[in-house]
């Protein structure tokens, strides 16, 4: 019997919820669906994926998370650039102070913020910038305006680095919060689909075709592929027809059949192991009406509901 497990992945549960909402819209009243109605399904669905057609548009928790995730790299780049600028400022400051304080570290360098016995610029230059600002404020004759090394410019570096770090941290927090809200919305939709499955189990028989309308397999179907939906035939060049269809659940391969009106008394198989959900038929008689049938199969057998459509061959 088909298990009808609710999917965990975002794409799969969104696809299921869309089918479920459409099924509830069409058949909910007729089967007395009450706990998981179309309105309730769509509320949870839109909360997750959004609705750009609403007034005002609803971005959805997934869209908010995607935007926050997209914004983070730029903020991180700005922070990294601000840190590089700050270290470059400190490096230049060391060079112009050497004539005043010595070319090697000594106790005089402590006044400029170098208290660890080294003139190396630390990975986090922010505390050092504050010390350099105070040093140049107390020793204005040691500033070098042409090289942009002054107390005021040290303060400007502090402001730029602090602002960039704050923005990067805020971006990281926003992404974390958005992800938590997205995960919560997806969990809510998962619970909604689980509730719908339980409710349908009380309202439909295991072999009722309406299971398909809600995006589920019939419990009586077993492990064979589910139905094939939306077979679309498109004319190509002379004698050519393109067939395209939606993936059938649990399908491993597809078989393609043609039946030319007035020529084939029964469908003729033209492809036996199509992997993708599309196929191009060639060498068909122009002007003839042809019926195309697609069946899905896997190791458990062939699906019970093929897809069939007809077209006039170009």
UniProtKB/TrEMBL annotation:
SUPFAM superfamilies with a match to the protein in the record: Fibronectin type III (SSF49265)
CDD domains: FN3 (cd00063)
Fibronectin type-III domain sequence ranges: 227-314
Domain of life, per lineage: Bacteria
InterPro entries the UniProt entry points to: FN3_dom, FN3_sf, Ig-like_fold
Name of this protein: Fibronectin type III domain-containing protein
The species this protein was found in: Phragmitibacter flavus
């Amino acid at each position: 019997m088909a298990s009808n497990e609710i999917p965990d992945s975002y794409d799969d549960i969104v696809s299921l919820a869309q089918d479920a909402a459409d099924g509830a819209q069409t058949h909910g009243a007729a089967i007395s669906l009450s706990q998981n109605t179309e309105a309730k399904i769509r509320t949870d669905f839109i909360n997750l994926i959004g609705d750009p057609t609403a007034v005002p548009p609803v971005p959805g928790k997934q869209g908010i998370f995607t935007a926050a995730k997209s914004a983070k790299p730029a903020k991180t780049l700005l922070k990294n650039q601000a840190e590089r600028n700050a270290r470059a400022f400190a490096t230049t400051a060391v060079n112009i102070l050497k004539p005043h304080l010595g070319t090697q570290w000594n106790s005089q360098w402590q006044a400029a913020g170098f208290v660890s016995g080294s003139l190396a610029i630390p990975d986090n230059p922010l505390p050092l910038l504050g010390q350099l600002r105070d040093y140049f404020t107390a020793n204005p004759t040691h500033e070098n305006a042409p090289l942009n090394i002054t107390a005021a410019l040290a303060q400007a570096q502090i402001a730029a680095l602090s602002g960039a770090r704050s923005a990067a941290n805020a971006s990281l927090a926003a992404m974390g919060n958005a992800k938590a809200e997205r995960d919560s919305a997806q969990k809510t939709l998962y619970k909604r689909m689980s509730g719908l499955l339980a409710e349908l189990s009380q309202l439909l028989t295991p072999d009722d075709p309406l299971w398909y309308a809600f995006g589920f397999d019939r419990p009586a179907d077993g492990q064979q592929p589910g139905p094939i939906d939306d077979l679309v035939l498109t004319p190509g060049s002379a004698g050519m027809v393109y067939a395209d269809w939606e993936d059938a659940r649990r399908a491993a391969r597809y078989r393609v059949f043609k039946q030319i009106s007035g020529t084939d008394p029964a469908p003729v198989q033209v492809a036996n192991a199509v992997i993708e959900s599309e196929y191009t038929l060639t060498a068909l008689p122009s002007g003839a009406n042809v019926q195309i049938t697609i069946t899905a199969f896997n190791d458990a057998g062939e699906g019970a509901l093929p897809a069939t459509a007809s077209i006039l061959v170009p």
